Amino acid sequence: MLIFFVSEDSGSSQWRLTGFYGAPAIQDRVHSWRLLRQLHDSPLIPWCVIEDFNEILSSHEKQGGLLRNEWQMRNFREALEDCELFDLGYLGNWYTWEWGRTTANNIRERLDRGVANSAWENLFLNYILDHLTNSFSDHCPLLLSTCPNFGQPQQYWHFRFEASWLLESSCEAEVEHLWSSSVGTIPDCLLAVNLGLDRWLVKLKEKRS
């Protein structure tokens, strides 16, 4: 694991970057999530964690091979939630790890990812995370660009959806309601759904507290 403090050229902001490697053995992964929680100091410090977590968030991030145990994925989701880290999304192939070259034994999983807290996302509104093409490794490299269009006024907005929300019984109905009541272009509707889900999540947390 590598931990860096990054200062921008302007000197106006500093953020923390963690290169994380999840334990390859299933029984040891609980220690990885405990370490991640220990690294969670404050939501006010912009924080990005990237690399190989050796785990997936949901069964949709795996193709081929045996089904992943739900408790494994749940432990990973809960660790990210406790650390207030959100998935950064990606460009490129949906998977980052592949094993087997024939249809019968091919397995693909999204084991590598970038996650960050809200403070980091607010600092880099135009970020892009690319899944690059792999050559010799069974993992594809990740390229995180914090200013992909430096000097250009174009802005990017990233739709954020957490896989753990699907476990809530009211999620599907809420998405349907937000989408049907939204107007405008598809990006406008997606923005309305995302903002509505943010409000829905706040209310959900208030009910639990």
TrEMBL record:
Protein name according to UniProt: Exo_endo_phos domain-containing protein
> Per the UniProt entry, what species is this protein from, by scientific name?
Hibiscus sabdariffa
What InterPro entries does this protein's entry cite? Answer: Endo/exonu/phosph_ase_sf
This protein's source sits in the domain of life called Eukaryota
